[in-house]
Write a sequence for this structure.
């Protein structure tokens, strides 16, 4: 079952995506404007969303404004394969033999999907995530 992660990132602006291939970490820096009477008051909240133990990720559609609609998660490879069917079809000839099977049977992995109103879209398959205020 796919559900929203507990932290609310709706309308956050993705400022940076940093990928550490050796340490298997992907980190998104996100910023939200604080509102007063439904208008930005110039103040922001900045947070870092870090994924640890990353085994696969994909990001596309980068734009000047990358505004999050929702970040969802699932513990099911089946959910992932439905959500990312086109990606899997496009990449099927590029994975090492057995790679997807190793992901499928690893019960410690979770599947995170980044949905945006505009800009970057993507997914991360990792062991855990953490949110830190900056």
């Amino acid at each position: 079952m796919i559900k929203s992660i507990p932290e609310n990132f709706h309308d956050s602006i993705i400022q940076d995506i940093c990928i550490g291939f050796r340490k298997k970490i992907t980190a998104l820096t996100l910023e939200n404007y604080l509102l007063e009477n439904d208008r930005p008051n110039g103040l922001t909240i900045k947070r870092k969303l870090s994924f640890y133990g990353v085994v696969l990720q994909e990001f596309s559609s980068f734009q000047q404004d990358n505004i999050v609609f929702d970040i969802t998660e699932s513990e099911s490879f089946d959910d992932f394969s439905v959500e990312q069917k086109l990606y899997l079809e496009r990449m099927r000839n590029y994975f090492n033999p057995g790679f997807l099977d190793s992901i499928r049977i690893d019960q410690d992995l979770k599947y995170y999907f980044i949905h945006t109103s505009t800009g970057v879209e993507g997914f991360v398959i990792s062991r855990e995530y953490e949110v830190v205020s900056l």
The chain is about 15% helix and 50% strand. The radius of gyration is 16 Å. The chain has a mean pLDDT of 94.
